[in-house]
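[job 4471] stage=fold_predict status=RUNNING
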Amino acid sequence: MRPSGRNLADIRSISIETGVTKHAEGSVLIKMGDTHVLCTATIEDKAPSFLKGSGLGWVTAEYGMLPRATNSRNRREAAAGKQSGRTQEIQRLIGRALRAGIDRSALGERQIVVDCDVLQADGGTRCASITGGWVALRLAVNKLLKSGLIVSDPIIDHVAAISCGIYAGQPIADLDYAEDSEAGVDGNFILTGRGRLVEVQMTAEGSTFSREEMTKLLDLAEAGVAQLVAAQKAAIA
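[job 4471] inference complete, writing structure tokens
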């Protein structure tokens, strides 16, 4: 039995609310159970200098966790004077994931920055950031299309992410913190709406895993991402 009472393949309740901030070109509040992330997308008129003259656009991300997103206060990274290695790794992951769903030539030489701020954490914050970040990106691109600044849609597919792992010897989908902290194997799976793999992060957290177990986790991830993509579609309908 999972601590949450969910069945092995059940994902947490998901809510994606759009238009939650006044100024951002795209804004989303995504809730995956008790993990809540604010995702905002900002359009910048020029691409990074390394893309100058290439005709290609860029999508990047920044990630942060509010001090009381967890059960004890974490010091703001700005107060420490630098980002943690974890934060840098997560925001690079989010950027890579979102770029997998976009045609950068259709975007033109501009940049879209997706900011993901964790308001409340209960496991799977990077996955929720990717899933919600894609919706914020979609909303920002819609504004570019509506304004006529671009003529063809640069978004080629949905991108969503889910964690899956082995808890108490069983493969389970969408780990919350209680499960993640005790899991023998923990994995993050990023897929497109068509089921193509973008990135897989899997780690044995105390016990190794077999290829058969990895396949079971991938099956759970595919089913979970299909539900997340359906939620994305409903949010932007």
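[job 4471] summary: The longest helix spans residues 211-236.
[job 4471] exit 0
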